[in-house]
Amino acid sequence: MTLFFIVTLNGLTLAALYFLAASGFSLIFGLMRTVNMAHGALLLLGGYVGFSVVEATGSWGLGVMGGGLAAALAGAIVQFGVLGWMQGDELRQTLASIAISIILADLMLWHWGGITYQVALPDMLSGGQRLPLLGVGYASIRLALIGFALVVGIALWLLIQKTRFGAVIRAGVDDQDMLRALGFPISRIFIFVFALGGMLAGMAGVVTASALSIAPGTDLQFLLSSLVVVIVGGMGSVGGAALGALLAGLAEQYGLAYAPTYGAVFTFAIMVLVLAVRPQGLMGKAEK
């Protein structure tokens, strides 16, 4: 039972990472219907910048903010300069964002090299905590990561579902012409949403570099996981992203613990099953 609970906690930690990475992707891909295959590169950029900020200042909080702002700026530039001109043309967006991802990956490899980086943790997040029910220790950063993902998820849901700005975003996806007729600056709104998605990816990169590590290839890993999470949970749904991340994280950890030979298969088996039974995702809306 101790092993089971530890594996479950590891699954929840991984699910929190996947949710943080996929929440911005779900916001851009699900709500705006913009295919951004450079999302993983934004996450890696945020992790690298966050590492550099922490090394320069010694402040982990500034590192998270710096990584998020750097990815937000890069995301806004990508939307304004490239993808915004291809709205509605998914194939061109896919090809252009793949090219952007490759360029960003090469630039980051040139600047930071091909070594693995890990962000230094503050004293309050270093070490571990003894879990009272299990009598075993567990890393403080992993426990904090679960709480951080919960806070981000609740804040994002409130923004989209309970604010006027969220209503404008959702309306802009369904009927941009009507919003333009009402005087709303759709292009600027979409740039802001893209920047918000980039910021979430950048912050996820710093947290990933803190709890695990980052290196060339991390961008592809989290891009694939974000795709799986959004497909399983449903596009444009924060709750769906959370549910998809939970299923993916737990399936991966249970598979590695109890069937390591086939561990990587379980996550994709869930995705195939969901696509076969409910193509729009578990909490997604069917296209009208």
TrEMBL record:
Please give the Gene Ontology molecular function terms for this protein.
transmembrane transporter activity
Places the protein is found? Cell membrane
Q: Which UniProt keywords apply?
A: Amino-acid transport, Cell membrane, Membrane, Transmembrane, Transmembrane helix, Transport
Keyword Transmembrane in the entry? The reply is yes
Q: Which residues cross the membrane?
A: 6-29, 36-54, 60-83, 95-113, 133-160, 189-214, 220-248, 255-277
One of the protein's GO biological processes: amino acid transport
Name of the protein described by the UniProt record: Branched-chain amino acid ABC transporter permease
Q: Which family does it belong to?
A: Belongs to the binding-protein-dependent transport system permease family. LivHM subfamily.
State the Pfam families in the record: BPD_transp_2
Upper lineage is: Bacteria, Pseudomonadati, Pseudomonadota, Alphaproteobacteria, Rhodobacterales
Gene Ontology CC annotations of this record: plasma membrane
Membrane topology term reads: Multi-pass membrane protein
**May I ask which residue range the UniProt record assigns to the signal sequence?**
none
